[in-house]
Amino acid sequence: MEQDQTPSEKPGHPPAQAILHELRTAENSAAHLLPKLQSMKESNPHLTLLDVGAGSGTISVSFAKLIPDGHVTGIDLNPNILPRARAVAEMAGVKNIEFLQGTVYNLPFADETFDVTFCHQVLIHIGTPWDALREMLRVTKRGGIVAAREGDYETECVWPELPKLRCFHQLMAGLMSAGGGTPTAGRELLSWALKAGAERRQIELSYSTSSYHTTSERKVCSQGLCDQLRVGSLREKALKFGLGTENDFEEMAKAWEEWAKRDDACLAMLHGEILVQK
Amino acid sequence: MEQDQTPSEKPGHPPAQAILHELRTAENSAAHLLPKLQSMKESNPHLTLLDVGAGSGTISVSFAKLIPDGHVTGIDLNPNILPRARAVAEMAGVKNIEFLQGTVYNLPFADETFDVTFCHQVLIHIGTPWDALREMLRVTKRGGIVAAREGDYETECVWPELPKLRCFHQLMAGLMSAGGGTPTAGRELLSWALKAGAERRQIELSYSTSSYHTTSERKVCSQGLCDQLRVGSLREKALKFGLGTENDFEEMAKAWEEWAKRDDACLAMLHGEILVQK
C-alpha cells in the first residue's frame, strides 16, 4: 500500500490523484487563451502569467514554454504539491517559472501585477468562485486578461453505462459538493464573472470538451481513477464524508478496469471557458 | 396563428421548427469532417457527398460550396421540407446539389456510390441507428468516409436554471424517447458504429459543443424555441404524446423569453462525432 506516500516525499513521481491532472497542458486545457496569448506576446515578449491552482504544474510549464522571454508564476493552496511542480519544470528544462504556496481568495501579489491570470478546474472546487475571480481581476494589469476553464461535471458522459460507473459519478459529485464546490461550474462560469464585477462586453465565453476513448487513453484514465479509488486523498476524503465504503470503492475500481478493456468505451465532458479583458 | 403553414407552402421561409436548424453549416456542424474532406478534394475534385436527413439543406449547401467541382445529394424522409431545401440552395446560388425524398434505412442508391456519406442529428431520433450507419456504409465507396455528428441531449446545460426551462428539457427528452430516439446519442455513437460492422481501428471519435450565449444568439435561440412551443410540429407531437398542455408550453415559451433577456444566460451541449474510414 502506498497510502502514506505524500507528494512531498516523492517529488519525481506524481501522487495518485495527479496522474490524470498531469496529462493537462496549455494546449489541451487552455486552447481558448492561446490565440490571445500569442498576439499579446507579439507586442510584449516579456509577458507575466499567473497560473492559479497550478497543482503539478504541467499547464504552467507549457505556458512557460510558450512565452520563453516571459515569466510564469504557479500558485497552489497545497504546499505538498509544490516539490512535484518544481520537478516537472526541471524535467522539462524550463527556467522562467516559479511555484509558490497561496490561496486564490487572497493572492500574495500587488494590484495589476500580471498580464495574464489563469485558472483551470479551480473554481469548480471552491465556495465563492466570484470572489476568486474578483481577486484574479485585481492582480491583472489593465489591458490584461483573466482566463478560466471549468468543467461541468453534470455533463460527464460515460459509455458503457456500467452501474458502478454511475455510482462513481455520484461519488465525485458528492465529494465536490461536500467540499463546497459546484458540479455545474461550466454553465455557471459566465454568471460568476459577472458577479465578480466584469461587464458582459468584457467577457468572451466558449465551450470545449475533454475525453478519453483510444486504447491508451482508456488505460491511463482507468489507472488514474483506480489509483484515486484505492490509494490517495480522494479515497480518504470520501471515507471521511461517509460517501462510500472501501468495498464500494473497490467495486468502482473494478468497473473502471472493465471499462478500459471495451472497444466501445468512452468518457467525455463539457467545459465552460472565459476570457475577461480587463 | 400560422399553424397551418407547412414548409411546402412557403418554400422561401423556414418552418417554425427549422429556424434553429437553419443556423447549421458544414463549418459549425461538420468541423470534424472538413480537414479530411479538404484532403480528399485535393486528390479528387469531383467528390460526391450524400447528406442524410438534410432537412432545410443548409449543411448540404455549405458542403456543395466546399466542393464546387463535386456534387452533393441531400436526402430527407419528410417530402414537405424538400422545397425549402431547394430554395435555400437557389438563394445561395449553388447548382451542384440535388434534394430527394428517402429513408436512411433504405437509401435509394447502389452500393459504393458516394465518396462521403454524412448525417447530423439524425441517429439521435431513430430506433436502430446502427442499421442506418450500416446502410450509410453500404452506399459509401471503398476508401471513402462515413461521418456523423449527434448531440448528447443529457449533457444540455442551461443557465440560469429557471424551473420551466428544466420542464422544457424534460419535454424534449420525452419527445425524443417517445419517437424511438436516444437522448444519449452522443456517448453511444461509437458503440453504434461498431454494431454497424465497422472495426474500432476504422473509427475516429471526437467531441465538440454547440452553444448560444451572445445577445443575438440568445434572441435567435429563444425565438426558435418559442416558435416550436407555440406553433409547428413539435407542439403538435407533444400534445399527441400527452407530454404537456398548451398552458405548459406557453409557460415554457415565456421562460425562454426571460432567459434571452439575461446577460448571464447560456445554453450549451456536447456532441459526439465519428469518422469511419471504409
Automatic annotation (TrEMBL), chains A, B:
Q: Which UniProt keywords apply?
A: Transferase
InterPro entries assigned:
Erg6_SMT_methyltransf (IPR050447), Methyltranfer_dom (IPR025714), SAM-dependent_MTases_sf (IPR029063)
Question: What superkingdom heads the lineage?
Answer: Eukaryota
Per UniProt, what is one Pfam family of this protein? Methyltransf_31
Q: Which residues form the Methyltransferase domain?
A: 45-154
BP terms from Gene Ontology:
sterol biosynthetic process
Provide GO CC annotations from the record. Answer: endoplasmic reticulum
Q: Which GO terms describe its molecular function?
A: sterol 24-C-methyltransferase activity
Q: Which family is it part of?
A: Belongs to the class I-like SAM-binding methyltransferase superfamily. Erg6/SMT family.
Would you tell me the protein name for this molecule?
A: Methyltransferase domain-containing protein
Q: Which organism is it from?
A: Cladophialophora psammophila CBS 110553
Question: What does UniProt list as this organism's lineage?
Answer: Eukaryota, Fungi, Dikarya, Ascomycota, Pezizomycotina
